[in-house]
Amino acid sequence: MEASSSSTKRKPTAIITIGMAGAGKSTFVQRINSYLHSLDPPSPPYILNLDPAVTHVPFEANIDIRDTVNYAEVMKQYNLGPNGGILTALNLFTTKFDQVLGLVEKRAAEVDYVILDTPGQIEIFTWSASGAIITDAVASSMPTVVAYIIDTPRTTAPATFMSNMLYACSILYKTKLPFILVFNKTDVQPHDFALEWMQDFEEFQAALASHSSSRDSEGEPTYMNSLMNSMSLVLDEFYKNLKAVGVSSMTGDGIKEFFEAVEASREEYEKDYLPELERARAQREKTLQDAKDDSMDRLMKDLEIDRAKNPQGALNDRWDPDEENDEDDDDDTDINIVDRSEHPWPGQYIDVTRARRHEDEGINWPRPG
Ligand SMILES: Nc1nc2c(ncn2[C@@H]2O[C@H](COP(=O)(O)OP(=O)(O)OP(=O)(O)O)[C@@H](O)[C@H]2O)c(=O)[nH]1
Ligand SMILES: [Mg+2]
């Protein structure tokens, strides 16, 4: 299904698995790993374990955070509890993430998938700076999808289901990446109830109403209930932005469907995420260029003062009319994308002469604020 010849080889797809503690992230990673190995021809993925506190992972990771940081040592050394320890270990690891990406990119020609297993405590990855840095770094280097793993048997209560969906929603809007809801453990609990609730909010509201504690002693819907009723309407919009698959990491059920969703998400990445990423990049380049132009202006102003003080020295500056043409691309303010390797370095001769030519115009250079 993948192109394997190196000339047509496309970039690998990164799958970031995220989910509540015990949802089955690591088992899921192992399952998709063995699925990819069983393909014909086999397509072994490149796996990163980002959980520093795990004692045993069911797969062979290509890069393991535990090789870089010793979580127990970090806890001791920084006097931290378990979660602070995991967070600090992740932060330390993130400072080296450029090397990680370098290694991944070196293997990009051989692998079709890069899989990331994240720490058990979901918020350590989703609400930390390092989680965001890692996600952004991966997503700007290759097509990336988020696989949000859900413990299906534990989500059958409408209230739990809604909390889980709200969490997923917050991650979707934070990362803006293509998102797949993976209802795991379908061998224990089929996920059709979840699909029904997502497709039809009235079904969800009915389930909510039939739930025992949905009315108070006077027979009125409880506060919690009306809140969830209204939220189900809001979430309706959110559901439209994602794909949902049911899998069993235990039996391997639904894994093929998962990869079909990954393929569709990859297209979504290229259609929606990538142009946005490039726009943001161009914006950053422009900000950088504006800052450079600003310091250049200030430099010119300083030079002008110097010349006023030392007219004899100013006579030594020469102006080469040929260079005026080059100047044009310099003056353009409506071009945002700049190849910095072609831009004159600050203090280059051409810019000095420009100031001299405009001497009599009495330019007021902006001063730093
Ligand atoms: N029945 C069943 N059990 C599963 C499935 N997937 C995972 N489990 C079990 O769920 C438990 C947690 O699985 P893990 O893979 O460790 O979950 P995790 O999300 O990586 O856990 P942390 O990293 O500790 O948060 C284990 O006991 C698994 O055997 C599944 O598809 N079906
Ligand atoms: Mg795990």
TrEMBL record:
Q: Name one GO molecular function term.
A: GTPase activity
Keywords attached to this Swiss-Prot or TrEMBL record, sorted alphabetically, are: Cytoplasm, GTP-binding, Hydrolase, Nucleotide-binding, Phosphoprotein
Q: Which GO terms describe its cellular component?
A: cytoplasm; nucleus
Q: What ranges does the record give for the region Disordered, renumbered to this chain? A: 304-369
Where found, per UniProt? Cytoplasm; Nucleus
In which residue ranges is the amino acid composition biased (Acidic residues)?
A: 320-334
Enzyme class name: hydrolase
Do you know which Gene3D superfamilies this protein is assigned to? Answer: P-loop containing nucleotide triphosphate hydrolases (3.40.50.300)
Does GTP-binding appear among the keywords? Answer: yes
Question: CDD domains this protein is in?
Answer: GPN1
Query: A Pfam family this protein belongs to?
Result: ATP_bind_1
Query: What InterPro entries does its record include?
Result: Gpn, Gpn1/Npa3/XAB1, P-loop_NTPase
Please state which protein family the record places this protein in: Belongs to the GPN-loop GTPase family.
Q: Which PANTHER family does this chain map to? A: GPN-LOOP GTPASE 1 (PTHR21231:SF8), XPA-BINDING PROTEIN 1-RELATED (PTHR21231)
Q: What's this protein's name?
A: GPN-loop GTPase
What species does this protein belong to?
Hypsizygus marmoreus
